[in-house]
Specification:
The structure is a homodimer of 354-residue chains. Chain A contains 11 helices and 12 strands. With 354 residues, chain A is α+β, with helices and mostly antiparallel strands. The longest helix of chain A is centred in the first third of the chain and has 18 residues. In chain A, the strands form 3 sheets. Chain A has a 7-stranded mixed sheet with strand order 2-3-4-11-5-6-7, with helices on both faces. A 3-stranded antiparallel sheet of chain A has the order 9-8-10. In chain A, strands 1-12 form a two-stranded antiparallel ribbon. At the A-B interface, strand 3, strand 4, strand 7, helix 8 and strand 11 of A face strand 3, strand 4, strand 7, helix 8 and strand 11 of B.
Chain lengths: 354, 354
């Protein structure tokens, strides 16, 4: 075996997730849905949200910090809204349940909203917004997260970078999936730079005093923070996402959201999900035509020198996904060993790595 | 009279707007609502959206490019959604009508959505989101606009900077009003730099070839474009705002939205408005307590050196508003002369400037 990298197909990795969850006591249906949504990040090349995090989920399930078989409770249902107490279950599963409810509620009228509290990390927001788009609705999904960014002028992490996603259905094409977080770079980029002994560009992060730093360790582990995009704009957006997903849902919010690697606490994440039922606002065919016309303006724009192609939001991720479906993904040997240890301790089948 | 600046109170300026609209044939109710919402931008110090634009609106009304007494048509109403054909009326008025509909529709359930087509510029998005917050709902309002930004890698303006606003009610305080556009700076800043013969910092704008420029004229008048915040993120957000406000509503979208200064065409703006009825998702008192707790974390964060105070979104604008209510606003003498000419040509009363 190659000591530096191993390759695994997405199919086998999804089966591996499924087997691990099942061995940990997660019921079959929940394990299968969780594996399917967990692999979304791996498939899109979002390394920091995928397989790298499996050991954290395993620990959290083993320590009872995530419920294997959560008791989902629907509260305050109206014709077009509902609140889900996710029972501290795997966010990959609970969030899909909330998405299905939002789609069902949006069918009767033009728009619906579902909030979730007592949830866990759900991976990539785009995975869930896309499910809504696959029902010919416009999907919006947001989450709060463990604190990473300081207010402008601050020197203390107060908010997560609180990602959100919009997904819009197209006719005969994959939906447009726009998925962003409110920091300039992810915390994962800082961790990678630190492990490789590299400095980071000025502008990405602040140190523990709120001053710019190029030291990824100070920024990430030493009490520093990530810089929000466009300063007040990114911080304000993160605040709005926490108000929708944290304050309004009944979940933890702000400094009280806990991270995956903190084994003292549940994370207490919250979410907001909105589904817009296109056909209640415009005949579907007309919407699809108009959307294609706008997208055509974008990709057909006059190009700057050096630009070969203009991409729509999410298109690069789709390209990576198509490639990864062919080639599988690479895992470094240290992580591979960790996965093997997990598999053997749980007596889970060891899938074929090459 | 001071030749360089004159000062006018907000009260008198609002009355002046009202009189001008009325003299142009706008019915009283529409003129009054329009004046009230037009002055919002002046009151908040958003100079480029306020009185500077009055001559443009006057021209457009006189040329029949904006309907004085629009025929508003409600279409496709459901229990929680509706589409407004704004009849090409003044956006300050039509948008308030749509906001009132959204609030009414949200009362029965958790959330509502209203789209608008055949609309005109409405001034500041925050003005309308705030109206929703004043009904103890969370408001979201967006608009498309004339093209200003190019896709990343592009050299042609395709989308407006498509502002949007979230407003959140507080107990015993003004709502939190977060209002942003998706370009790093407004087009107004480029115009001001050009008039003052100054160059602009690299990073704000591109020239007609999609290359960075420090020449505001090339960027604004010479076929260049504004740079979106955080590159793909800002462009993607602008695209989503145009899908919601333009494509989905039936309005113009993308390159087809026209600017206020183009006297050949109607603007054809579109909008999307969402109202979230807090009390259907959480007891109101509990929401207010939780919100204050989050806002307290933000403003109470440890400060970086040199920071005296951490501001919430919209708080600086509120401070400016309080000051402007006391002192009035300054208008340069050239604009003042233009306003006087408009007043005398319409036989409108000349309000007291000092």
């Amino acid at each position: 075996m190659n000591q530096s990298k191993v390759t695994i197909s997405l199919y086998e990795l999804e089966n591996f997730y499924n087997a691990i969850f099942t061995k940990l006591g997660v019921p079959e249906e929940i394990a299968a849905i969780s594996a399917k949504n967990f692999i979304y990040a791996d498939s899109k090349g979002a390394d920091t949200h995928g397989v790298l995090r499996l050991p954290l989920y395993v620990q959290r399930l083993q320590k009872g910090l995530v419920e294997k078989n959560p008791n989902l409770k629907w509260e305050l249902e109206t014709d077009n809204s509902a609140v889900l107490d996710a029972g501290n279950g795997l966010g990959f599963y609970t969030t899909q349940m909330a998405v299905e409810k939002a789609v069902e509620k949006a069918k009767g009228n033009g728009i619906s909203m579902v909030t979730i509290y007592n949830n866990n990390h759900f991976g990539a927001a785009g995975c869930y917004a896309k499910m809504i788009a696959e029902e010919n609705m416009i999907g919006f999904v947001t989450t709060n997260g463990a604190p990473l960014i300081a207010p402008v002028g601050g020197a203390e992490r107060i908010l997560g970078n609180n990602p959100f996603s919009f997904a819009v259905p197209r006719k005969n094409h994959e939906p447009v999936v726009f998925d962003m977080a409110n920091s300039i770079v992810s915390a994962g980029k800082l961790m990678v730079a630190h492990h490789q002994g590299e400095s980071i560009p000025e502008g990405w992060a602040l140190d523990e005093n709120g001053e710019p730093t190029t030291d990824p360790y100070r920024a990430y582990n030493g009490g520093g923070s990530l810089v929000p995009i466009a300063e007040h704009k990114g911080f304000g957006l993160s605040l709005m996402m926490d108000i929708l997903s944290g304050v309004l849902s009944g979940a933890n919010f702000g400094k009280n959201v806990s991270g995956l690697a903190n084994y003292e606490k549940i994370t207490g994440n919250g979410n907001a999900i909105i589904a817009i039922n296109i056909e209640k606002l415009m005949p579907e065919e007309r919407f699809f035509e108009r959307l294609e016309s706008l997208l055509h303006m974008v990709v057909g724009a006059k190009k700057a020198p050096g630009t070969e192609r203009i991409y729509l939001p999410g298109e690069r991720g789709q390209q990576v996904q198509e490639k990864n479906r062919q080639t599988g993904i690479s895992i470094n040997s240290k992580l591979h060993e960790e996965l093997q240890e997990i598999a053997s301790s749980l007596e889970a089948p060891l899938y074929k790595f090459s």
